[in-house]
Specification:
- This protein is globular.
- The relative contact order is 0.16.
- The chain folds into two domains: 168 residues, Aspartate Aminotransferase, domain 1 (Alpha-Beta Complex); 237 residues, Type I PLP-dependent aspartate aminotransferase-like (Major domain) (Aspartate Aminotransferase, domain 2), CATH 3.40.640.
- It has 15 helices and twelve strands.
- By secondary structure, it is of the alpha/beta class.
- The structure holds pyridoxal-5'-phosphate.
- The site of pyridoxal-5'-phosphate has 13 residues, from helix 4.
Length: 428
């Protein structure tokens, strides 16, 4: 008997995510004894704050299934976090806890019946999620010159060119952004919020890197378009706990229908997030002085590293903007296009493959972030260093004292070396 292959049509052609694929390729090369500079995977290198780890230990015995929407005390802590950080006025009843914000995004795209608008470049998983669910996607392409930012004008032009401006639409905005680390000013967010409201577009504001804004000045678009904005956040990036799988969505009361539908879908799928993790997350979202200090140090290290890596790349002729937060750089190697074509490299995938083979530097092609394939863009995740060591050293330096020039050379040497290798390879 042979079992017939019968896959959901929407999953045909969907492969492993680009991030996981480059990881597998890097592992294979490492097994061959090659030195690999892993700038592919974007996970926080820093340890989880000790008080949060202690809280997890204390709650290891919690074994009950919890409320599908999340532990009430955690929802309260998340709502208060958003209020305290001046992001949005959220009520605990309007918070939904999920096993990572990625899963919540998938559920949102499942329950929302309409078109998804994505600025490009955009994070690797939004588009595949929409594809799996059969949701139509429209891209708004930004450019290096726009600092890869969506502007209110672009959104307005997009809406004006749409021949059905009444259909349900959802736009996903991510800032500080993966892949480029850029954020928006309050004025820019106000203008975007205005156009979204005018066109009745729901806005999913992915603020997973909000607390990693280098200056601690993250602003949410929800301030300007509260009734239409869902804020997405979680523990993965600012708290260094990606593997704990805890994400949060905060809704305005006007979008309760989406929250309720998502909770219904959650109750039939994952039931609730792991109980001990939810209890420990209360500690994280309550913040307090020690966690704030941790955050200031993490931002200080990430900013110093961004400054030094951007300098190496820009001095080497690579087009790249200084990020506002997070731990990514989005490079544009167009100035080397002629040289690359001469080496039979015609798109971002070829470029990253050749770079990995010839230098051992693993980065992700711009195509994975919905950039046109023939462009020479790519994302570097600058976090392949020992975050615990860097943080421990940073703790010995007063908070208001800048890090010495030698800091990144000592604690993030491999990241700097990888950038130098990229530059050298482009010039060879
Ligand atoms: C922009 C962005 N959004 C969402 C996520 C998902 O985060 P999590 O599912 O860990 O909450 C990530 C993770 O890499 C991300 O970079």
């Amino acid at each position: 008997m042979s079992i017939p292959v019968s896959l959901n049509m929407n999953l045909r052609g969907i492969g492993q995510s680009a991030t996981l694929a480059i990881n597998e390729r890097s592992k294979a090369l490492r097994r061959e004894g090659r030195k690999i500079y892993g700038l592919g995977l974007g996970q926080s290198p820093f340890p989880i704050p000790q008080s949060v780890v202690d809280s997890l230990k204390m709650h290891a015995h919690e074994k009950d299934y919890l409320h599908v929407q999340g532990l009430p005390a955690l929802r309260t802590a998340v709502a208060e976090f958003h209020i305290k950080k001046d992001l949005a006025d959220i009520h605990p009843d309007q918070v939904l806890i999920g096993p990572g914000s990625k899963e919540l995004m998938f559920l949102l795209q499942l329950v929302f019946y309409g078109e998804i608008i994505l600025p490009s470049p955009s994070w690797v998983s939004y588009h595949p999620q929409a594809h799996i669910l059969g949701r139509p996607v429209r891209f708004i392409h930004t450019s290096f010159e726009d600092k890869w930012r969506l502007t209110a004008d672009m959104l307005e032009r997009h809406c004006a060119a749409d021949n059905d401006n009444t259909k349900p639409r959802l736009i996903i905005l991510n800032y500080p952004s993966n892949p480029d680390g850029g954020s928006y000013t309050a004025d820019e967010l106000e203008a975007i919020g205005f156009i979204a409201r005018k066109n009745n577009i729901i806005l999913l504001s992915d603020e997973i890197y909000g607390q990693l804004h280098f200056e601690g000045e993250h602003v949410s678009v929800s301030r300007y378009y509260p009734e239409g904005t869902i804020i997405s956040s979680g523990l993965s990036k600012w708290c260094g706990a990606g593997g704990w799988r805890l994400g949060t969505f905060s809704f305005p009361p006007q979008l309760s229908w989406l929250r309720e539908a998502m909770a219904a879908a959650a109750s039939e799928t994952y039931t609730s997030v792991s109980a001990p993790i939810q209890y420990a997350a209360i500690r994280a979202f309550k913040c307090g002085i020690n966690i704030e200090r941790y955050l200031w140090r993490v931002r200080k290290i990430l900013k110093a590293l961004a400054t030094d890596t951007v300098r190496i790349l820009q001095d080497g002729g690579v087009r790249v903007h200084m990020p506002d937060g997070a731990f990514y750089l989005f490079i544009d190697c167009t100035p080397f296009a002629e040289k690359l074509h001469a080496r039979n490299i015609h798109n971002s995938m070829d470029m990253c493959e050749a770079l990995l083979q010839e230098t051992g530097v693993a980065i992700l092609p711009g195509a994975a972030f919905n950039r046109p394939a023939n462009e020479f863009t790519a994302r570097l995740a600058t976090v392949n260093f020992d975050g615990a060591k860097a943080l421990a050293k940073c703790e010995t330096i007063p908070l208001d004292t800048p890090l010495p020039d030698s800091f990144t050379k000592t604690y993030c040497k491999e990241t700097l070396d990888a950038c130098k290798r990229i530059v050298k390879w482009l010039h060879d």
